[in-house]
Design goal:
The complex is a heterodimer. By secondary structure, chain A is α+β, with helices and mostly antiparallel strands. In chain A, about 30% of the residues lie in helices and about 30% in strands. Chain A has three domains: about 5-120, no CATH class; about 120-255, Jelly Rolls, CATH 2.60.120; about 260-330, Phage tail protein beta-alpha-beta fold. Chain A has ten helices and 18 strands. In chain A, helix 2 (about 20-25) packs across helix 4 (about 45-65). By secondary structure, chain B is mainly alpha-helical. Mean pLDDT of chain B is about 80; it is low at about 85-95 and about 175-185. The chains are: A alpha+beta, B mainly alpha.
Amino acid sequence: MCVDYTKAMDTENNHIDPVGLLPKYFSGEATPEESRLVDEWLSADKDNRKEFDAFAKLWKITGSVSGEDEINLESEWQKLESVVMPAAAKTISLGRILQIAASVILISALAYFGTKITGVKTESAPVAALSTHTLPDESIVSLNAGSRLTYQKGFGITHRNLTLKGEAYFEVGQNATLPFIISSGDASIKVTGTTFNVKAYADQPEIRVTVTSGTVLLYETGKPAGEAVLHAGETGIYNKSMKTVNKKDVLDINDMAWKTKILDFYNTPLQEAAGILENTYHQTIVVDPGVRSCSITVRFDNQEFGDILRVMESTLDLKITKEGNRIIIFGNGC
Amino acid sequence: MTTDDRILKIEFEKLFREHFTALCYFARKYLGDHDSSKEIVHSVFIRLWENRSSFDWDKSAKSYLFTSVYNRSMNFIRDNKKFVASESPEIREEVTDTSAFSDTLEVAELEGRIKTALQRLPGKCREVFELNRFEGKKYAEIASLLNISVKTVETQMSKALKILRDELRDYLYVVVLFLLNNMDHL
């Protein structure tokens, strides 16, 4: 490292990357040679001095911030909100809770299904009936198989914050003073409209929110300023690794298929269609690599799973068999 | 809740999220205690909400918040005579020395930002940086502790500092004078 910087010095002073040496310099671990390089760089240019000062300030202050005393802004805000807002909550009457006006769907990324199909992820969604619950604020929620919803005491009185793992469909009663906030790890969804419908899974690269009516805010948890405002007919996509929120003005009916049993495939690659079917009918489907890229165009409205397989078998000239509890799709390619 | 209240609540939440962390660090400079600091900051926000209709939202809310936290911290110290502040060499009765006040404010703000920025560093990078800065470990110690080379420690340290510099750019180039006065124990 030392040699690299010496070379840089010899050719042109300004080419030194000060950051490379400054941490050592500040912590007193720089060799005399390295210190000399920093000093020379420092006196070479007024801008270098400015840069150095900024880093020195940063260094000094990072030293005064201890590793403890973490502040969780989200929980601090909830604490304050529960103290400051309960008076408002008391004025809410049942009459203000209106019927459904908005629908939100949080969608598992297709990549997630992809991993299930390729067998990387081995456990399959258990076959389970949807369960429907009425929340303390009279909102109604349908949970998909294996999904879980948690909320703290005081829900509907001091707050309406929920944590969702998996998928759910919400019909949320209106309450302008207590926003309905669903957090799903990295992303949060805040409903400002009257009613909504949620569907969410945990371990995916992205979180999708599809709005069928009303208005919904999607944002990185803890950063409501970076929210995307989603209106009816729009889809919000939160990318977990990039921490970005994007908006598309299209709505995919298949995002709600698990609830509605309406599937609409249009030139959909078979692997993708299988993923949607898995999530809708809670079956494990393995698609043979030879037919994965075949595309399918068909609409199913409340069909039995067996009927759907038979239709696919005949229209795409596929072979579909059952092995244990897995559905295997294969064929001669297309 | 009226429509006005709803708008104020959005403003209120924005203020809270922007300044809460820095205000806590600011109060701790005087009180030396994390929990009391948080309590005081909460009480200032509660008071602000109670006075929301008369509060001048267009004026600098930030200076209101910091001044209130300062005053409450001073009252707290007065009311808790037994209370020994562990690191509060600059206790004053009121905000008379405005330059010291704003220096402390600035440092607290920067500390708050740094805390947030640190949480966003890549895992290894953060680990190395915190071992060095918070626990005072030497490069060689960190290297053997994490079973990596000293060269990697150097790289991670540089990377951390660079990321922090980029995240905090707005704050670092502002007050150079303050820095020069405090360079002595670097």
